[in-house]
Specification:
alpha/beta; 318 residues; three-stranded antiparallel β-sheet; binds zinc ion; Nucleotidyltransferase, domain 5; 11 helices
Amino acid sequence: MPRPDFPRTIMEFQKRFSDEGECLKYLIDSRWPDGFVCPRCTHDAFYWKEGRSLLQCKACGYQASVTAGTAMHRSKQPLTLWFWAAYLVTTHTPGMSALQFKRQVGLSSYQTAFTMLHKLRAALVKKDRDKLHGTVEVDETYIGGKEAGPGGRGAYGKVIVAGAVEVRGEVAGRLRLRVIPDVTAHTLEGFVKENVEGGVTVKTDAWMGYVGLEKAGYHHYMLMGSKSESLPHIHRAFSNLKTWLIGTHHGVSEQHLPAYLNEYVFRFNRRRTPMAAFQTALGLISERKGPTYKGLYGVAKGGLAWAHPNPRDGSLGS
Ligand SMILES: [Zn+2]
């Protein structure tokens, strides 16, 4: 049996997941597409327990939690709210801030909204392991820093993000983004090797950090002209990323930037498969656990300069 289908519109979504029972049914269909089978004795009849959050095998008494391994496990929030959050995180363009989410679903606690969104984002970290192939554009960009400050390579107070994107004719293929410590050849080649299949064509600008790529086993195409014209796909991805970070999140702290990069890449790479994205966010495919609140706030670093530290949005504790 295939996975259950995914609502095409927000109206359909609202109708389909209107109560806890419908959400539960969807969870069960997703986790056990061929119907529940006891993992201990393979019997297929069960009782509902604990307000239907547990299934108990009628033959041997084994109990299986419907939400184990998902983002929703042990949460006090209703499934309907989790489903809305996952829907908004994966399909709402250009993404959802915790404050917007809190307002839209009428949550009273900002912390609850923030933690829920971060748990969903943590599930998105599960990487698409295939390296990029075909023709790939690679470049770096600087996130943050004072507007009037020095720009370009070596700029102080900014976070460097390396990016690689597949070129599929006029459109962009898959994207990878990562925070990097510097723009040395060692770091940039490391980023390329980790994310791009050996032997493919890699397009970069003339920065010296890239000169070793040919030796490293790539067909290196170094561009001398204006960057935005010669590397259009990666530049569009960087530009949209910055617009999203500033416009939706009003800047994010350095600590949380990797999580936002993951979310951005995730949505970018699955912009044509919303159903798979929704299920991944909820943890219905990966069995990955989300971080705890303590894990999220154990260490707080300073916000980025342009992030006009806004305690309401994405930089709690900084
Ligand atoms: Zn059993």
